[in-house]
Amino acid sequence: MAVTVTDETGDIVDPSEVSSPRSWRRAFADLAQGWRQRPLWGYLGWQDIKQRYRRSVLGPLWISISMGVIALGLGILYSALFQISLATFLPHVAVGLLIWNFVSGCILEGSEVFIANEGLIKFLPAPLSLHIYRLVWRQTLFFLHNLVVWVVLMIVFPHPLGLSTLLAIPAFVLLAINGAWVAIFAGILATRFRDIPPIIASVTQLVFYLTPIVWSVDILSDNPAARERAQLVELNPVFHFVEIVRQPLLGQEIVGRYWLVTGVITIVGWAAALICLRNYRSRVAYWV
């Protein structure tokens, strides 16, 4: 007599896979079940922002204000140091910081996403991916708030925007997809080895200075002595993700190789994250 076995999502599975927590079906089912719970992690992500600015007069507007003040200060400083027009360099710095805040948020908070949700993981029967989606959604809301700074700069310092500006939408979607796999991989690794979060924090700070956020590759390229060294920035994967979003937002020429590199990183990164999720998903609850 055949026996029908279902998993936690209600899908019919092979009985041979039930006894083994390490199965691709369980890994993909975790991602699918977490995605189906969009109302839950969407609400939780929004509440995270409201809770952070609770009893504040301006509320979430402080996100954009702090971002604008930092961008203005760095833009004025470095435009004077590099002797570049403020109208050109300030939008470059502001948009770079806008993208970097999203990237660093996914990396830093991703490394502690499961540790920070220890109580929910232990006592709430929910897929691990729910916490990943919640994190990426919260960072997306921060990004959208900070877009106000970009709008103001485009009014004050007009740039030749066109239809290519719409490429910023798929570029950001690609950025968010990569933020998800980074959070999965770093989150599981950091939950097992608690020395990983401070290491990631230090490396992330170093990557900020190695990425052309408050400086420009064109500045170094104009210097014959530094032109070859400036090309080494291509080895920085974050650089390509910053550029695919920044170029359309500033009306610059779209460089195809940046999209190619980010596409390859997306495939390789998700492959590594899925392997990690498949092998160690069931252990996270014991590690937190």
From TrEMBL:
Q: Which UniProt keywords apply?
A: Cell membrane, Membrane, Transmembrane, Transmembrane helix, Transport
According to the entry, every stretch annotated as the ABC-2 type transporter transmembrane domain falls at 42-248
How does the record classify its membrane topology?
Multi-pass membrane protein
Judging by the UniProt lineage, the source's domain of life is: Bacteria
Q: Where exactly are the transmembrane stretches of this chain?
A: 57-78, 141-161, 167-189, 196-215, 258-277
Q: Where in the cell is it found?
A: Cell membrane
| InterPro entries according to UniProt | ABC2_TM
List the Pfam families.
ABC2_membrane (PF01061)
What family is it from? Answer: Belongs to the ABC-2 integral membrane protein family.
Name-wise, this protein is ABC transporter permease
Organism classification, top ranks? Bacteria, Bacillati, Actinomycetota, Actinomycetes, Pseudonocardiales
